[in-house]
Amino acid sequence: MIAQTSTGHRRFYRNADKAVLAGVCAGFADYFGFNLRVTRVLVVIAFFMAMPMTVLIYLGTVLLVPSVSSNSRRAAVDPDFRRAVRASPQQTLSDVRRRFQSLDRRMARLEKYVTSSRYQLDREFRNL
């Protein structure tokens, strides 16, 4: 079974709430789950090492990527869950798998009860 990540449902936006220049670094850090300060330091280093290319990429990102503030975005995923996935993805995956197996067992018991004659008998007694 292949685990599908949530990156297919996310989009890259510039983060206007944490923006210093245009929110590109903040959006990049939010999208990939990086530390914002480290991302900014790496971009400054990239400016010094490859100035023309970095400036073109940064300006292109500012012009092409929309800016979104946090009050206009709805949190589709619980922030605690995201933190847990970043901290230990294997443990989080096993927890989710265990919860789904538990739900599957409960659903099987419910289906067995609803299709049994006992359910019909209980339903008749309730209708009296």
Explain what the structure shows.
Residues 1-7 have low confidence and may be disordered. With 128 residues, this protein is mainly alpha-helical. The protein has a two-stranded parallel sheet with strand order 1-2. It folds into two domains: 9-76, no CATH class; 77-128. Helix 4 (79-87) packs across helix 5. 65% of the residues lie in helices and 3% in strands.
Relevant terms:
2 domains; mainly alpha; 128 residues; 6 helices; two-stranded parallel sheet
Q: Helices, strands, pairings?
A:
Blueprint: E1 14-15, H1 24-32, H2 36-49, H3 51-64, E2 67-68, H4 79-87, H5 89-114, H6 117-127
Parallel strand pairs: 1-2
Helix pairs in contact: 1-2, 2-3, 4-5
Task: Return residue spans where pLDDT drops below 50 for at least 5 consecutive residues.
Answer: 1-7
Number of separate domains: 2
Tell me the Rg in angstroms: 24 Å
Mean pLDDT: 81
Q: What's the overall geometry?
A: elongated
SS-based class = mainly alpha
What is the first-to-last residue Cα distance? 48 Å
Strand order of the largest sheet: 1-2
Would you list the SSEs in sequence order as H and E?
EHHHEHHH
Number of DSSP-assigned strands: 2
Largest sheet: 2 strands, parallel
Condensed summary:
With 128 residues, the protein is mainly alpha-helical.
